[in-house]
Design brief:
This protein has 165 residues and is mainly beta. The protein contains 2 helices and 11 strands. The model is unreliable at 1-28 (pLDDT under 50).
Amino acid sequence: MRRARVRIASGALAAALVAGCAREEPPPGEIAIELGTGEWRFEPLVDGQEVRMIHGAQGGWHVWTSVRAADLDPDRVRLELYMRPADEPESGWDTSKIDVNMVPDGDAFAYLGYPFVVVSPACAADRPLEIRAVLRDRRGTTGSDSRVIVPTWTPVEGGGPTTCD
């Protein structure tokens, strides 16, 4: 009987303390995230949109990938990007994981211009690819978004993605 009174009393005390205190941060929940493109500014993507593959300075091919999010702590955010053929959901994901600091972008925060490498550009050209972005802030709050894009490319002097392995 004494244990029951102690539990009730300590529970009532905890409830009173919580009710009287304002929270400094909201509890972890879903981050509202939008996956886009753009090297210098955020450009929203829609499913099926063509996105130009860029021939990078080191000889590889990439697509500019950007994310915009609200309801997160913008410092030290973990960004995980995944890419695979949209018509082969059983295939593995090409992945890239980086820690980023997001910058103000209107009423949200953004990370702009990540060069997400296209591992097999000749196989990816003109073929739907699914790209998924996952954000996790230092509070542990997460969110994700995905789009299906169609990468395009323009041949470059001296070669380009010509054979699909």
